[in-house]
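## retry 2 of 3
previous attempt timed out at serialization; input unchanged, resubmitting
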Amino acid sequence: DVTASRIPFLGAGAYKKVYRKSLSELWAEFKADASARAALTRSDARRLTHHGFSVRGPQIVSDDRLFYSIAGAHDFPALMEWTPAEPKTVTTRVLGTRVSSAGDDLVFDQVEFVRSVALLSDLYAVPRGGGKHRALTREARAVDPDVSADGRTIVCAVQMTGRRILATLPYTTRDATQVPVPLIDEPSTEFSSPRWSPDTHLIVAERRRLGGPSEIVVIDVASRVVRVLTASAHGRSVAPVWTPDGREIVFASDRDGGAFALYRIGLDGASLRKAVNLGNSAEAPALSRDGARLVFVGYTVDGSDLFDIPVAEVQWQAAAAGTVPSVSPLIAASGAQVSAYQPWRTLAPRFWFPVIEEDDDRLAFGAGTAGTDALGRHYYFTSASWSSRRRPDWNASYAYDRWLPTLLADVSDSTDPWKEGTVRVRELNAGAVVPFRHVRQGHALFGGFHAATEEFACASCAPPTDARLDRRAIRGGWQFSTARAYGYSISPEQGWRGSVSSEWTRKALGSDGDATSVIADVRGYVRTWPRHGALAGRVAFAAASGDERVRRAFSAAGSDAQPGGIGFSFDTIGLLRGFDSADVVGRRAAVINADYRFPLRWVERGVGTWPFFLRSLHGAVFADRGAAWDSTLRAEDWRTSAGAELSADVVLGYWVPVTFTSGVAWRKDPSGAVRGVTPFFRVGRAF
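## retry succeeded, writing output
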């Protein structure tokens, strides 16, 4: 209540009022306490990896090779093999949790888009040495695979409506998918992390029933009888694995109320023991086939990483087994009336955000808001910003995403400089987008209707201008992206992006004339030195034909950001740094851009609790070449600029990422109208 009554972004003083200590004092106490706890925790384990962030699912296979998964801020998620020299990537992997061995193959789970909408998990196999992976299931919602010791059967968990069951399927080396067959299916129950016993007669798994405790259970495969080994009502017990002799289970649990630790329990449910010399945190255990080596995931200041220790050196301390609580009865139906879904009460604005953008070499400031309903069917966005002009620029957009395609509509009103005067543009757009989504790439088709009224005012022009232009058009386009950027990226580092679009303006639609426009934009990114450095290249072209009154003109110049996507405006391709957008204009335009981008410093600091956070500083050297012409392209139409940029990635309002860029450009203009070195400023990345 105290923070809610204060001005947004200025609520830190509430801590002093409530706790009698400032937020910085409380934070200092927390850090000191965490450091003291860490110093008291003993660890005899050896750290194997230094990935940080998220490391999951280690598995030691038959020839003592160690495989695991990573997801971090430096690269695409991957299935890895640990080697003494350095870890090796086996294949990319998205959101999988477990890996198992089947002969010369590894079996793992990962997610993929299905029909461009749902992210579903399936099972895959890949050679241990790497290569192309193949699907073992299709749209099965299968996770946590484990292959039996004879290599013939996979057990996994399968997500169903309101429950997660255990299922099996035969493992095959054929390029064909299988359907998991239910093994254990209990209502309102979730099974996770199943593991075959060495003799393949039993399966150990985690079970969580609605209203019940977290349990480690053993399933007799032949009789399908489920027996509880241990349960925890106040924490989770997860990731069970068998000892090689099949007599004990090792698992992770946070039942003590702290971080996860490893426990060991006999198959009869007796002799529960806790490992006490593995450090601050230990989970996801993996045992070598001879039982001599234990690998687990531990937590450090960098995030998660792999550790190992000889099993003989693990110190086990007796732990209280506790009692197995009974399952709480399910909540009975309240008798409330079921009614049709009404999205309107969840659509009201619940936040606002600042807007900072560049407007013809001036900064514009404003605010915006957005919202969506509980099921994500409706989405809206609106913002307004002011610069030195009297009239604000504003826009409002809406999307209906219940179906495929997504339906779109937006309206806007903006004023921009034109010659010595201004042009006011009021637009209405309506259309649809059909996405084709995949985890590693995406495509989209667009089609829509465009209506715009442009009012030109220039009292100081010769002759003075006061004109109006109506444009009505059908638009279409296609865009694709395989580009990848990561948490610490200063730019896309890998892959391609591109788009092709066209606009057909016709009198029959209410326009002042007939015209056609075509725009194409392709850009590529390659990793280079140093880490997160990138070479970026771009080629773009735009052309227009038709009646002069409604025929579009395109600029090849300007220092503003070119985020990409489908666009039709005057400056939709223009990027010739150091030149004004009005310097290079014609019915046709072409641009070539090349950047070398490199990180300078990861600052990652703010000022107290103020809503400003400086993430990083990075630089770039660039070369741009662009031309615009009406009928014939001549050598003297080409302009060139080259120079350097310094950029700062910041976070405003605690969550809005913004890039501020300043630079200098040396310009070459064969006409002599523009020459020399000039500074420029931009909000956003170049492209």
